[in-house]
Specification:
By secondary structure, this protein is mostly helical. Helices cover 68% and strands 1% of the residues. It is built from 17 helices and 2 strands. The protein has a two-stranded antiparallel ribbon with strand order 1-2. α1 packs across α12 and α1 crosses α13.
């Protein structure tokens, strides 16, 4: 395999990868960075009633509830968890020292925190009224602690105990610990235990003004979805079981998590901005179903010819996430395709512009893919 000599975190992809995982990660990133906009533009163009429901799913819920767009972030964390047994446990089996692996995942955490600070605009505005927490820092903390648990737990059972303990701790805090002046179990944004902790522990600006959706308790809760992904990864790596049964077990676990979340939701609401345990269970359940589907179709049945488009996104996910913050892909699309709005109509123009963004992003990533340049953090 051709290699590219680079420094830091840029290196070539390994020869063996779980193809379905790269594809699912790529699907996730493609929907975040333009796929949803295409669906919305197509809905406005056609006026088809059946597409209205799809278009609605491309927006976050205001507070309580769950839509597809509320899945994108936790799905990425779930996928990062699935990769833990492949990235860490496989090296332990080869005799790599745990201290060396700990150093590696700690550096990864620091890199993601730094990239999150950069993403939030430190180079634009400095640190005046700055938001320190970010999506990337939450991914970093979630992966770090989930990997740490997997690294030092003596068994999968130990990982499960940690998972249940963290989920139980978050649930107790959100349901039963009283917030001064407001009482316990409150789920209004300004009066939650999340908001109370964020206001006291996070410096700078909070994204939600009185709370942060990537705040202290959200980070703790998000560790659990990464751990659930890791448990799925353990199952996928387990020898001796038929691959089709592995997909079935993951799918059944996903259904079970969704059912539990829905049964508890009247008493413990599904709220993404709080990362309530019910939200995590539902997001993990849907993520598990998607993993089972992609794994069965791609790795079990061998249907791989259609995966290239998404793999190109998935194998450079951090690159395109940061790139979308630095490069105005929408402006580039308008430069080439704005004539469609002028000479056809605005609705057709909006669709072409949305498609143009995805095509330009993909073309950049495909160039890096062909050069075997991948940003690994």
């Amino acid at each position: 395999m051709k290699t590219t000599e680079t420094k830091g975190t840029i290196r070539t992809a390994p020869k063996e990868r779980l193809l379905s995982l790269d594809t699912l990660r790529g699907f996730d990133m493609a929907m975040l960075l333009g796929g949803g906009a295409i669906i919305i533009a197509l809905t406005e163009l056609t006026g088809w009633n059946w597409m209205e429901a799809l278009a609605t799913q491309q927006h976050h819920v205001e507070w309580e509830g769950f839509r597809f767009y509320d899945l994108i972030f936790p799905l990425f964390m779930f996928i990062s968890g699935v990769a833990i047994p492949y990235a860490i446990n496989s090296k332990i089996e080869k005799g790599v020292a745990k201290s060396r692996l700990l150093k590696k995942i700690f550096i990864r955490l620091l890199a993601l925190i730094a990239l999150g600070i950069l993403y939030n605009g430190a180079t634009q505005r400095g640190f005046t009224n700055f938001r320190y927490v970010s999506v990337l820092s939450q991914i970093g903390f979630g992966y770090f602690f989930a990997a740490l648990i997997c690294l030092y737990s003596r068994s999968i059972r130990g990982c499960v105990f940690w998972l249940l303990g963290i989920m139980g701790g978050v649930a107790i805090l959100q349901l039963f610990v009283p917030v001064p002046g407001h009482g316990a179990g409150t789920f209004e944004s300004a009066t939650t235990i999340n908001a109370w902790l964020d206001q006291r522990l996070i410096p700078g600006r909070l994204h939600g003004k009185v709370f942060d959706p990537e705040g202290v308790l959200c980070i703790v809760s998000a560790i659990t979805i990464t751990l659930m992904g890791a448990l799925s990864g353990y199952l996928l790596r387990r020898p001796g079981k038929p691959s089709s049964k592995k997909a079935l077990y993951i799918a059944l676990a996903g259904v079970g998590a969704i059912v539990i979340a829905q049964l508890l939701s009247p008493y413990y609401p599904i709220i993404k901005k709080m990362w309530t345990v019910t939200y995590v269970l539902k997001a993990a359940g849907v993520s598990a179903l998607m993993l089972a589907l992609f794994y069965y179709v791609i790795d079990v049945k061998g249907s791989k010819s259609w995966t290239l488009f998404f793999r190109v996104f998935g194998m450079n996910s951090i690159t395109i996430y940061m790139g979308s913050r630095i490069i105005d892909f929408g402006d580039i699309s308008r430069f080439f395709l704005n004539w469609t709005s002028v000479h056809i109509n605005e609705q057709w123009g909006a669709l072409f512009l949305a498609i143009g963004v995805v095509v330009i992003e993909w073309a950049l990533l495909y160039f890096l893919y062909k050069k075997k340049i991948f940003l690994r953090v």
